[in-house]
Amino acid sequence: MIKLVLTDLDGTLIPDAQEGVSPNTEAAIRELKAAGIAFGPCTGRPVNMLPDLFHNQLDLYATGVYENGTLGFIDGVEAFRHTYPGEALNRLGHFVAEQGFSELTLFDPLHGPSERYGKERLEELDQLDLSAYSKANLHFDSLEELPGIAEVLRARFPEFDFVMPVTDQALLDILPHGISKANGALELARRMGFAPEEVLVFGDSDNDFEFLGAFPHSVAMANGSEKVKATARYTIGQSKDYAVAAALRELAAYARKES
């Protein structure tokens, strides 16, 4: 029996980040929770972005995995946090700026606004305690250059993992090595007392690959990458058609029938 649903947001639960979670999807989540099944996002986004996406309805995202697995909450209480090796993150920031690859974007550990650190701000970067941060990423000019640069970064900075959080933006998320949405989701489920087979997960992009592979009940979106669809046990419809909301309603109906 499924006891917890974890879902990616962009391109999965939410087709348009500008609009956030639709009223239809909000209602489906509440229906699921009313049937006794826990729900939470599993996303690369930092926590401070969630209120806008969920229209300030805290109960819909009080439990979840954020920042690609570095941060987890249960019922609004922080359950775990994994931060960066500060010295290595500083070296990475200097390298990408000096090579002209990108600028290091840091998300404030107290969930304030993000800041970019290019060549002209490296002295400011040196003054920060980077070991306090748990969310950072790199923006690039084009998708085509991303795979090659990612390989360079992986070879030069083994302290980190670099993942593409979405399929349509030239963006790399930076993770402490060994940390992922998969590990975060498994840790959250364990802390909630649920086995992997009691968890249903949804995703669409390459940073969901390990996440979907970590659970036997995994669902890819039709709009997802081929790698993700090959990994997941099931594939459903398009994010733009609110396929996750429909699946949540089906699961809620089944849970009510079985109770």
UniProtKB/TrEMBL annotation:
SUPFAM superfamilies: HAD-like
GO molecular-function terms, A-Z: magnesium ion binding; phosphatase activity
PANTHER family recorded: PHOSPHATASE YKRA-RELATED, PHOSPHOSERINE PHOSPHATASE
Domain of life where this protein originates: Bacteria
Gene3D superfamilies per the UniProt record, alphabetical: 3.30.1240.10, HAD superfamily/HAD-like
GO CC field: cytosol
Organism: Leptogranulimonas caecicola
Protein name per UniProt: Sugar phosphatase SupH
InterPro entries, per the entry: HAD-like_sf, HAD-SF_hydro_IIB, HAD_sf
